[in-house]
Write a structure and sequence with these properties.
The structure holds 2 protein chains of 2 kinds. By secondary structure, chain A is an all-alpha fold. Helix content of chain A is about 80%, strand content about 0%. Chain A starts with 9 loop residues before the first helix and ends in an 11-residue tail after the last helix. Chain B has a domain of about 100 residues. Chain B contains 7 helices and no strands. The chains are: A mainly alpha, B mainly alpha.
Chain lengths: ~210, ~190
C-alpha cells in the first residue's frame, strides 16, 4: 500500500511512520549502517515522501550528531514528515523492538549462561565478534590513512595511545578531538575567505566553475 | 538509586557516541564494565555477541540487557530512555537549525576531528575483547603458556577470510561458535 502523503490523515501518517520504523528496527541486523540505507529506500524510493538530496542531508545530520545513527535518522525522518510528534513516534518505533527482544533475552541468558555447550558456543562466537570488530577497525583505519592528510592520522594514533596505554578517559578524548576538528575546520574556512578577498580573481578564472 | 545511575550512564553513552556502527562500543564498555562493574568483560562480550545477531542498534540492545539485569523491566526502559534522550534533544535542535539555515559546517568540523579518534577508541575496545578470547584476560599474557592456540588460529583464519571475502558478520560469528562447539566434542 503506497499512499501519497497528502491523502493520509494525521493519525494514519503517524501509524505508517511507527509501523515503518518498528519493522526496520525489528528486522534489521547490524545497526545504523544497515538501517539508514533501508530507511532511505523506503521513504525516498517507495513512498516518495522525502527528496533524495534532503534525505542525504538528514543522514549527514544523523551521522554528525551524537547518539546512534539509526535513532538519530529516524528522529529526523519523523520530524521532517510530521513535526515533533512525528519524531517521538519514529523514535518510539525504533526503540521498542530491541527493548522487547533484549529484555526477554536477558532473562533467558541468566538461565543458560552456565551451560557448558552454551558457554563453548559463546566463547567461539566471541572470537568471531573480535574478527568482525577488528575487520571494521582495519577498514576504517585504511580509509583515514588513505586520505593522506597529516591531522587525521595524527589524531588517530594519538587517540589510540591515549586510550590504550595512558588510560585517558573516553569523554576527554572525544571532547578534545571534537574541539581540534572544529578549530581546524573553521580556521581553514577563515583562511580561505581571507585569501579570496586578498587575491582578486584573475580574469581567466572568472569563467571557471 | 540504581535507576538514576542507569539513566545517567546511558545518557552519557548516548551523548558521547559519535559515528555509528561500533562507535558506542568503547563507551558502553567503559561505563558498564570499567566504571560500574555491572557486567564482567565476559558478560559484556556475550551481550555484544547477542547484539551482533539480534536486530537493532548495539547500544540499545546493551541498554535493555543491562537495565533488565539490574532493575527488571523499569531498568530496561530507563536505560533505553537515557540512551536516546541526548539524540532526541540534540537532533531535534539540529533539524530545526538545518531547516532554518541549512548549514552544517560546525558539525562537519566536529566530525572531522572525531572520525579518526573513534577508530582508535573502537580499536582499543576491540583489542580487549580479542585478548579476552585469546588469553583469558584483557591484556597481553605474561607467559606464552596462557595463549590459547586454537583461539589464535581461529582468529587468524577468520580475519583473513573476512578481509578477503567480506563475509556477512552474522555468518562469521555463528560459524566461529558452531565450529568451536563441534571441535569441543572431538
Amino acid at each position: 500500500m503506497i499512499h501519497k502523503k497528502e491523502d493520509l490523515s494525521r493519525s494514519q501518517l503517524l501509524w505508517v511512520l511507527f509501523r515503518s520504523t518498528f519493522t526496520l528496527s525489528a528486522f534489521t541486523f547490524g545497526g545504523g549502517y544497515v538501517i539508514v540505507p533501508l530507511m532511505r529506500k523506503l521513504f525516498v524510493e517507495t513512498y516518495g515522501w522525502i527528496e533524495e538530496k534532503e534525505m542525504l542531508d538528514l543522514v549527514a545530520i544523523g551521522q554528525s550528531a551524537p547518539g546512534l545513527i539509526a535513532v538519530n535518522t529516524s528522529i529526523l525522518v519523523g520530524y521532517k514528515l510530521a513535526g515533533v510528534v512525528g519524531a517521538l513516534v519514529t523514535l518510539f518505533g525504533t526503540v521498542l523492538p530491541p527493548l522487547i527482544f533484549l529484555t526477554l533475552l536477558s532473562y533467558v541468558y541468566d538461565a543458560i549462561k552456565d551451560n557448558t555447550i552454551v558457554k563453548t558456543l559463546f566463547y567461539g562466537m566471541s572470537i568471531g565478534v573480535a574478527v568482525v570488530i577488528l575487520d571494521a577497525v582495519v577498514s576504517m583505519g585504511v580509509a583515514i590513512v588513505g586520505k593522506r592528510q597529516v591531522l587525521p592520522i595524527a589524531i588517530m594514533i594519538l587517540a589510540f595511545i591515549a586510550t590504550y596505554f595512558l588510560k585517558v578517559g573516553i569523554v576527554v578524548i572525544i571532547l578534545s578531538c571534537a574541539t581540534i576538528g572544529v578549530a581546524t575546520t573553521l580556521l581553514g574556512d577563515a583562511v580561505k575567505k581571507k585569501k579570496l578577498k586578498e587575491t582578486p580573481v584573475p580574469p581567466e578564472g572568472r569563467n571557471e566553475k | 538509586m540504581i535507576l538514576a545511575q542507569l539513566l545517567w550512564s546511558f545518557f552519557q553513552i548516548g551523548l558521547f557516541s559519535f559515528g555509528g556502527g561500533y562507535a558506542a562500543l568503547p563507551l558502553i564498555q567503559n561505563q558498564i564494565v570499567d566504571i560500574h562493574g555491572w557486567l564482567t568483560l565476559q558478560e559484556f562480550t556475550d551481550v555484544l555477541t547477542i547484539s551482533q545477531m539480534t536486530p537493532g542498534p548495539i547500544a540499545l540492545n546493551a541498554a535493555s540487557f543491562v537495565g533488565t539485569r539490574l532493575a527488571g523491566l523499569p531498568g530496561a526502559v530507563v536505560a533505553s530512555f537515557g540512551c536516546v534522550l541526548p539524540s532526541l534533544i540534540i537532533v531535534l535542535f539540529l533539524a530545526w537549525f538545518y531547516y532554518r539555515y541549512r548549514s552544517l559546517r560546525f558539525m562537519q568540523g566536529i566530525l572531522s576531528g572525531l572520525r579518526p579518534a573513534v577508530v582508535a577508541l573502537i580499536a582499543s575496545a576491540g583489542l580487549s575483547i580479542l585478548f579476552l578470547a585469546l588469553f583469558g584476560s584483557k591484556t597481553l599474557p605474561s607467559s606464552f603458556s596462557e595463549v590459547k592456540l586454537y583461539a589464535v588460529g581461529l582468529f587468524i583464519v577468520g580475519f583473513v577470510v573476512m578481509r578477503r571475502r567480506k563475509l556477512n558478520p552474522i555468518l562469521m560469528i555463528l560459524g566461529s561458535g558452531v565450529l568451536t562447539v563441534g571441535l569441543s566434542f572431538l
